Amino acid sequence: MGLIARLVTFFGLILLAHAGYSAHEHTVLYSNARLSSASTALPQDIVIEALVSLVVVSVGLVLGAPKLKPISWSKWAGEIEKEGGARNPYRQLEDRYGFWDVRTKRKEFADWIRGEDPVKE
Fold first, then answer.
1. How many C-beta neighbours within 10 Å does residue 64 have?
2. How far does the signal peptide extend, from start to end residue (predicted)?
3. Mean pLDDT over all residues of the chain?
């Protein structure tokens, strides 16, 4: 996380702590005063400070996050095929009885197109 991102996040956390402290003090003040007719809702400035601090903290965290890695399913699938399929999370689906083996049928078709006799067992 860069220095600027850390400073922005720290500043946002300070603002959030101040908003929380202000809300606590406001609640204590009105609970001790025992004013039944007074509104106990938080003042708008405390609510706005809390929302702004959440936005500032979010911006700081996003700025400091590492770059996203590209999703490359073909590379992942190629690595699994090279290893023999041991890490394949879909292996149970592929090994079930009654399913058509696409790889074998594709190889048989390619051999048939080339004019080769398929290997008979």
1. 15
2. 1-19
3. 83
